[in-house]
């Protein structure tokens, strides 16, 4: 496994790949790789000649009270998992390498798409995401970039950025990977105590039941939100941040009756750990 740490070296690597006519798949990550990340790498391996995995805990997408310092960093283990899944290269720069200027240049998607859901309680988060992903697209020049649907708002924001800034890259949005008991794979799952881990199963269980109700004919948005909120609130360890429905694509406001394609998304704290999950509802 080749590990590249500098902008100059990743540029040279990409230049060589492009000169040989090779296609590039990029999997942006913050490390602490799990089976969800592995599924993205495996998809990239099938569709590209070269697979680059970035491992970078991006400081600009963390708020001042969030878990930047505590976020797991395990590059050796990440390199092993990435290699097993089919990656060719890990790009693991330092913050100084990615943000060399004190007065920073930002890439920011504005409007309601970044102000709802996680953007409401994490106001700087998506500016950090779009800035770092734009830098990675510029450096890796990927033909395709791979993201998981668990971060559904992020994927919609990145779609907007790619469209508005004319990035020549195909976004490949892959399904949520779950534990056998239904919990969505997340690097933050390691923060959960055993009791919190068990309590967190209420998320996937409730979303699955909500989708069943939708398929069964319950298309009233307020009723579905109320069902999800009531079910999750029945778990004593659950502290709800939001339960919301938006139309796809673009996270548009919904009418009372759902006709089309929608995102039903939740964010819930268990102790100090904030988890997100979602399900797609399609009429």
List keywords for this structure.
single chain; 283 residues; alpha/beta; six-stranded parallel β-sheet; three-stranded antiparallel β-sheet; 9 strands; 38% helix
Task: Report what the structure shows.
It is a single chain. The strands form 2 sheets. The chain has a 6-stranded parallel beta sheet with strand order 1-4-3-2-5-6, sandwiched between helices. By secondary structure, the protein is of the alpha/beta class. The chain has helices at 7-19, 35-47, 75-85, 95-98, 118-121, 125-140, 152-164, 194-199, 201-215, 221-233; strands at 2-4, 24-29, 50-55, 89-91, 144-148, 170-174, 238-247, 261-270, 273-282. The radius of gyration is 19 Å and the shape is globular. The model has no long low-confidence stretch (mean pLDDT 96).
The SS-based structural class is alpha/beta
Total strand count, please? 9
**SS element count, helices:** 10
Provide the β-strand percentage band: 15-25%
| Largest sheet strand order | 1-4-3-2-5-6
Work out the helicity level: 25-40%
Identify the overall geometry: globular
The N- and C-terminal alpha carbons lie at a distance of 45 Å
Major beta-sheet overview: 6 strands, parallel
- Ranges where pLDDT stays below 50 over 5 or more residues in a row are none
Cα-atom radius of gyration: 19 Å
Output the helix-strand order: EHEHEHEHHHEHEHHHEEE
Q: What's the overall average pLDDT, rounded? A: 96
């Amino acid at each position: 496994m080749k590990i590249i740490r500098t902008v100059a070296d990743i540029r040279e690597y990409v230049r060589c790949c492009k000169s040989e006519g090779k296609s590039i798949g990029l999997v942006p990550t913050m490390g602490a790789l799990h089976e969800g990340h592995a599924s993205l790498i495996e998809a990239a391996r099938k569709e590209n000649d070269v697979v680059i995995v970035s491992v970078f805990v991006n400081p600009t997408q963390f708020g001042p009270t969030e878990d930047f310092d505590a976020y797991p960093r395990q590059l050796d283990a990440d390199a092993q998992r990435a290699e097993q899944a089919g990656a060719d290269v890990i790009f693991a720069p330092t913050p100084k390498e990615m943000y060399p200027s004190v007065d920073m240049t930002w890439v920011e998607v504005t409007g309601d798409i970044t102000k709802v859901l996680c953007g409401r309680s994490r106001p700087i988060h998506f500016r950090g995401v779009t800035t770092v992903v734009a830098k990675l697209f510029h450096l890796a020049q990927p033909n395709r970039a791979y993201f998981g649907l668990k971060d559904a708002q992020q994927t919609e924001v990145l779609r907007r950025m790619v469209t508005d800034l004319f990035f020549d890259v195909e976004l490949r949005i892959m399904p949520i990977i779950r534990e056998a008991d239904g919990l969505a794979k997340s690097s933050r799952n390691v923060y959960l105590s055993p009791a919190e881990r068990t309590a967190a199963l209420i998320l996937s269980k409730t979303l699955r039941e909500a989708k069943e109700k939708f398929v069964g004919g319950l298309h009233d948005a307020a009723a579905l939100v109320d069902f999800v909120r009531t079910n999750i609130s029945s778990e004593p360890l659950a502290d709800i941040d939001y339960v919301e429905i938006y139309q796809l694509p673009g996270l548009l406001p919904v009418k009372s009756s759902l006709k089309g394609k929608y995102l039903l998304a939740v964010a819930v704290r268990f102790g100090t750990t904030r988890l997100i999950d979602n399900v797609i509802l399609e009429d």
